[in-house]
Amino acid sequence: MILDFIFALTSHDLAIDLGTANTLVAVKNKGIVIREPSVVARHRKTKQILAVGGEAKKMLGKTPRTIEAFRPLNDGVIADFDATEAMLRHYIQLIHENPRSIIPRIPRPRVVVGIPSGVTEVERRAVSEAALAAGARSAYLVEEPMAGAIGSKLPVEDSRGSMIVDIGGGTTEIAVISLGGIVINRSLKIAGDELDEAIITYVRMKHALLLGQPSAEATKIAIGSAFHTREEKYTVVRGRDLESGLPKSVKLSSSEIREALANPIHEIIDAINETVEEIPPELIGDVLEQGITLAGGGALTLGLDKAVAEATKMPVWVSPDPLTCVVRGAYILLSNSKLLEKVKVTGGLK
User: Fold this and answer.
1) What pTM was estimated for this model as a whole?
2) pLDDT at 2 > cutoff 60
3) Cα distance between the two ends of the chain
4) Which of 21, 50, 53, 138 could share a disulfide with 36, CB 3.0–4.6 Å?
5) Residue 102: is its pLDDT beyond 50?
6) What is the structure's pLDDT at 96?
7) Crossing angle between the packed helical segments 81-96 and 121-133, to the nearest 10 degrees
8) Considering only CA atoms, which of 10, 1, 301, 25 is closest in space to residue 168?
9) In the 8-state DSSP scheme, what is residue 336?
10) Which is a Pfam family this sequence falls into (predicted)?
11) Is it the case that residue 101 has pLDDT exceeding 80?
12) Is 20 assigned to a binding site?
C-alpha cells in the first residue's frame, strides 16, 4: 500500500491504444501526448533497439542486413513480445523524463490498454505481461469497441443499444453495446493493412509495378475512397517495374484505387450486415434510431459512411477524430474507476 502511494506520486497514469499500425498514449490530466507508428528497429544479432515509432517507420524497406525494422504487433495481437515490451518501455520512460530532476524517476504507472475483442486469453495475458514488464504497476485491459464507444461519447451504460465499427490497422471491431457490456461483437482481420495490400496487388496486376507498403498507405490516404465521388483525383506512385526491374512511375486515379479497395470494403460491410441481423429485437430499434458509429483510421476513408449507410439502410456517422477514439475512451476510464471495473476484461495484474 505504501509503495502504491509512492508510485502514484511519482508516476503518471496512462491510457494506451496499442494498435497494429499506430500506438497512442494519453496521460491523466494532460491528454494525448504520443501518436507514433507501432514500428521498432533493432539490430538482428544483438537485439539492441535502435529506433521506435516514427524514426523506425522511416527505416521500413530501407535497412541493411544487420538491422530489421518491423511491426511488433500483427492483426491486433503481439507477434514479438520483446519488441512490444521495448516499445512500451520507451514510451513510458519518455513520458516520465524530467530533465530538471536530480534524482532519476522510476516510473511505475497504472495503465489502461485497448485490445481487440476477438483475442484469446493467452493473447490478453501477453498484452498484460508486456505492459507490466515495461514498467507498469498494474494493467487493465479494455476491448477496443468499448473504449471506442466511450471515446465517441456513446451512452454505453444506458439500456439503449449502441453500435460501433472500429476499423483499425489490423482488425475491424464491430460491436453492439448496452448496459455497460458488449451484447454482440465480431472481430474481423480485414482492416487498414488489407486495404494497403489490395492496392499493392492491384497496381502489380494492372501496371506491373511493385509498390512498398508505405507507398500503398500514402496512396490510400491521398485518393482512396469507398463511394463514387464527383471529383476525380490523381497521384503518382513510384516503384519497380516487374518486367524490366528498373524504377517506374505510374499515375493512379481515385477510381482505380476505389476498384482496388472494393473487395476488402465489401467484406467489412458484409460483416456489419451479418452483425445487424443478429441484434436482439429489443435493441434493433435503438440502433436504427441512433445509427452506426464509425471509428478508427479506416473511418476516414472517403465515402465509407455512405457505402455502409446504403448497404445497411441505417444512418451512419463518423466519430469526431476517429483515430483517437480508443485512447480517449481509455483516458476517460482512468478517472472513472466504477466504469473501469464494469467494462474491463482483465486487470489489476501485478
Assistant:
1) 0.89
2) no
3) 13
4) 53
5) no
6) 77
7) 40
8) 301
9) -
10) MreB_Mbl
11) no
12) yes
336 annotated as ligand-binding: no
Beta bridge partners of 16: 25, 113
pLDDT tens column, 119-132: 888 989 999 999 99
Asked whether residue 21 is marked as a ligand-binding residue, the answer is: yes
**Long-range interactions of 193-200: CB distance < 8 A, separation 24+:** 193/20, 193/21, 193/169, 194/264, 195/220, 195/224, 195/261, 195/264, 195/265, 195/298, 195/301, 196/220, 198/260, 198/261, 198/263, 198/264, 199/224, 199/257, 199/260, 199/261
pLDDT in tens, 201-228: 999 999 999 998 889 999 999 999 999 8
Is the per-residue pLDDT at 104 higher than 70? Answer: no
Q: How many CA atoms lie within 13 A of 337 on its CB side?
A: 3
Residue 49 has pLDDT above 70, yes or no: yes
Can you spell out the DSSP letters for 141-184? EEEHHHHHHHHTT--TTSSS-EEEEEE-SS-EEEEEEETTEEEE
302 phi and psi angles, rounded to 5 deg: -55, 125
Residues 6+ apart with CB under 8 A from 235: 219, 222, 223, 251, 252
Half-sphere exposure of 176 (CA within 13 A, CB side): 24
What is the grid cell recorded at 72? 511488433
Q: Any known ligand binding at 22? A: yes
Where do the domains of the chain lie, and which CATH numbers do they carry?
2-146+326-349 (3.30.420.40), 153-319 (3.30.420.40)
On whether 61 is known to bind a ligand per the annotation, the reply is: no
pLDDT of the residue at 1: 46
- Is there a binding annotation on residue 171? yes
